[in-house]
Amino acid sequence: MKILFTGGGTGGHIYPIVSVAEVLLQTSSEPVDLYYVGVPGVYEQQLTSRGMTVFRVASAKLRSGELLRNLLDVPFFFIGLLQALWRVFLIMPDILFSKGGPGALPVVLACAFYRIPIIVHESDSVAGFTNRVSGKYADAIGIAFATAKESFIKEGMPEYKRAAIEHKLALVGNPIRDIFFMPGDTAAKTDAKRLLDFDPAKPLIVVIGGSQGSVRVNDFFMSIAEELLNRNIQVLHQAGLNNAATTQADLAGIMQKYSDTFRRAYRIVPYFGQEIKDALLAADIVVSRAGSGAIFEIAAMGCPAILVPLPESARDHQVKNAFEYASTGAAITVEEANLTKHTFLTQVDKLLADSALLASMASAAKAFAKPDAADVLVQEILRLSKK
């Protein structure tokens, strides 16, 4: 069996592909050959280490309000389409699994041309351009947020079209690494804090700014670092690969008048690898942007969260993700424009003073998470590949 994957080269596209591929290799009763055609970006090793053969194609990106750059990208789209037609012809897969994003649409169109079954998965609450177009050719569409349905079913659409799309739509969640689905209790939280060299008797806030970090989130936390520590709140702050050194220098300047013991309660790391599991397990509160991957990882670990969505995200999807997730009771959303010392510290004080509220948020998070997302998608891949 030959399975083809595609998806733009960000972690939000690639990590779900990796999760699905891992389950597929464990589940299939027959030998499976895995291929990726698209734009893997810096994540190519994540794919090849799972035995996936990777081929690159040229890509174009549709940018809102940037007509000239969009026009300049048109030739790259058609180059990518020709490359995809040739590569798909040589592979001739049994099925395509597409995550959308740059480079994915040519592969979807090539597979549609060869009448290869297509599964599209949308991680966010509002679908991007590639997935909206790809959905027209898909045999099945998986969505992570219920409101994403509105991206594929438009108001005024003929009933027969609406029925056809609803038939192939399913709310499946977002496939994430299985390390996040593990039991967590008070003892596990205490052990995780000790493992990370934090005081288990004090609350811990974990800040996740993404792999590159967020300068604005970093600067905000530097402005409240002393107040958090004076409240006996510990902080583990992922500042990002590009920003950790600068943020660490800022923190050193702020903390130079304090003792080593006081300073150790605020720790900066560039990036969480596998340690993200222990960090989330130890966290009393997580502060994060509102990408789908981050939300579903936080939910899987049952972490109460304060979400600060990226205001410039495409189609405002992070704001929409954040508010849809917060509506379950698992998180509080604070938009960046409203992120002030008073607002944030008031929310933190309120949460840490109410253990019942934290427990309720943790339960709501677990209820939102869908640990079988990858399994459901794999079963659909296996079913459609035999059509």
Automatic annotation (TrEMBL):
Gene Ontology process terms (BP): carbohydrate metabolic process; cell division; cell wall organization; peptidoglycan biosynthetic process; regulation of cell shape
Keywords: Cell cycle, Cell division, Cell membrane, Cell shape, Cell wall biogenesis/degradation, Glycosyltransferase, Membrane, Peptidoglycan synthesis, Transferase
Stretches assigned to the Glycosyl transferase family 28 C-terminal domain: 205-375
Entry keyword Cell membrane: yes
InterPro entries (UniProt xref): GlcNAc_MurG, Glyco_trans_28_C, GlycoTrans_28_N
Binding annotation for UDP-N-acetyl-alpha-D-glucosamine: T10, G11, G12, R177, S211, Q318
Subcellular location: Cell membrane
Reactions this protein catalyses: di-trans,octa-cis-undecaprenyl diphospho-N-acetyl-alpha-D-muramoyl-L-alanyl-D-glutamyl-meso-2,6-diaminopimeloyl-D-alanyl-D-alanine + UDP-N-acetyl-alpha-D-glucosamine = di-trans,octa-cis-undecaprenyl diphospho-[N-acetyl-alpha-D-glucosaminyl-(1->4)]-N-acetyl-alpha-D-muramoyl-L-alanyl-D-glutamyl-meso-2,6-diaminopimeloyl-D-alanyl-D-alanine + UDP + H(+)
Gene Ontology CC terms, in alphabetical order: plasma membrane
Domain Glycosyltransferase family 28 N-terminal residue range list: 3-142
UniProt-listed Enzyme Commission number(s): 2.4.1.227
Protein topology in the membrane: Peripheral membrane protein
GO MF: UDP-N-acetyl-D-glucosamine:N-acetylmuramoyl-L-alanyl-D-glutamyl-meso-2,6-diaminopimelyl-D-alanyl-D-alanine-diphosphoundecaprenol 4-beta-N-acetylglucosaminlytransferase activity; undecaprenyldiphospho-muramoylpentapeptide beta-N-acetylglucosaminyltransferase activity
Pathway field: Cell wall biogenesis; peptidoglycan biosynthesis
The UniProt record lists the keyword Oxidoreductase: no
Entry similarity comment: Belongs to the glycosyltransferase 28 family. MurG subfamily.
Function summary: Cell wall formation. Catalyzes the transfer of a GlcNAc subunit on undecaprenyl-pyrophosphoryl-MurNAc-pentapeptide (lipid intermediate I) to form undecaprenyl-pyrophosphoryl-MurNAc-(pentapeptide)GlcNAc (lipid intermediate II).
Identification of the protein by name: UDP-N-acetylglucosamine--N-acetylmuramyl-(pentapeptide) pyrophosphoryl-undecaprenol N-acetylglucosamine transferase
Organism (species): Candidatus Wolfebacteria bacterium RIFOXYD1_FULL_48_65
Lineage, top ranks: Bacteria, Candidatus Wolfeibacteriota
UniProt gene name: murG
